[in-house]
# Entry
Amino acid sequence: MTQMPGSEAFAAGDARFKILMAAAACFEKRGYASTSIDDVARKLNATKGRIYHHFPSKTDLFAAVYKHGMDMLYTRLEPIRALDLPPLQKLHALAKEHTRMMIGTKAFQRVVWEGVEMHLRGSTTPEQREALDELLNERHRYSAIFRAETEAAKAEGLLSYDNISIANQMMFIALNSPIFWYTPRVEETEADREAIARQVVTFALRGLGAKEGDFR
Amino acid sequence: MTQMPGSEAFAAGDARFKILMAAAACFEKRGYASTSIDDVARKLNATKGRIYHHFPSKTDLFAAVYKHGMDMLYTRLEPIRALDLPPLQKLHALAKEHTRMMIGTKAFQRVVWEGVEMHLRGSTTPEQREALDELLNERHRYSAIFRAETEAAKAEGLLSYDNISIANQMMFIALNSPIFWYTPRVEETEADREAIARQVVTFALRGLGAKEGDFR
DNA sequence: TTGACAACATACCGAGTAGTATGTTCATTA
DNA sequence: TAATGAACATACTACTCGGTATGTTGTCAA
# Structure
């Protein structure tokens, strides 16, 4: 089919990626429903044709952005998950990296949020459901990683909460919250972002009942 | 103009209110952009004419739902605000009632959330901006109530956090979180909802650095 | 040189939707 | 009882937008 799989795949992947970036920015700004394919094309100084050449539908484009966001999360979290650490330390490390990703890949993570929301509200068309259902399972597996460490830490008496489902929901919403209020400032350094992430994670772990000395 | 201001105003208000309820439910389910006026009308077993007779535009309908949600919040929070309590106790009482409202008037509060989001994203048309700008100020005043008590409690050494803006954002997101995950179950009692609110508020105040004994 | 194909752009169609203009019904009032 | 207006329903318009069909251009292999 292709003459040179490597470079051709890269070139095609690069073209796809540029579209993904533009789409993520548009979806972040207006949301899925209010973003038109023409909007995304305009952002690329291009026309619809370019997008529909690489993605069969608006739903698939959205799903691809969602998937890329989730893939980036997994890529960064998996090494930490594999570490041999006490539950609360591991939970802290996972939460910190998760929060860094919310800040560093905000546009994509916001699309992930909206994708989950669309699913929860059941406001999806059949095609959208088919495209998102598998991705939602990936999301559940991701969430399960945190839940396992949370329950283990509670078993050690280092956390305290009534309902694990509610606790998990609140922890994620707290960790995800930068996608709603974070905006990079001029002259902002990596240390600034790190300080933000630290405050976010501290809030979330304290919320779960952790003592500061136990995870820092 | 009217023969009997009282009852006629009530009747008109009642007709408007029914539309507000249906609109809140639709906006909650699909979001603003994906909700058509026909959807709202269908929910009322009616047609567009009924809605456009009471509201000049979709934007105004949305703004009215938003305003009603904020008004309900203010009505319940103002008496607590007027109480003579130590900052942390007052913050706790405010947070608890706020959370109860998130659970009890979820559809309206979700519209409030989306309204704030639309404003933050700047994804509003000029008309929408005009209709929402004043309402957003109301939202800021509401937020300021919590911020004042938070800073006062911190001054007493009962809270600890780095940045007040981030702390305020995270507290609100935590308290608001039921609008994303709460769904009433069958056979659910008032005590169940109270337990949920308690866990939410505990998470938020502990996140801000409060010791459990200081607010419960 | 010449197909052949990838990577787009252009032109168009059909469905859905906000908003309007106009009809209809019914209760109230002069 | 005739007129009036509130409270809708009906019918229509103008426009947006997802998707498709087709045209165009550059590149590369034979």
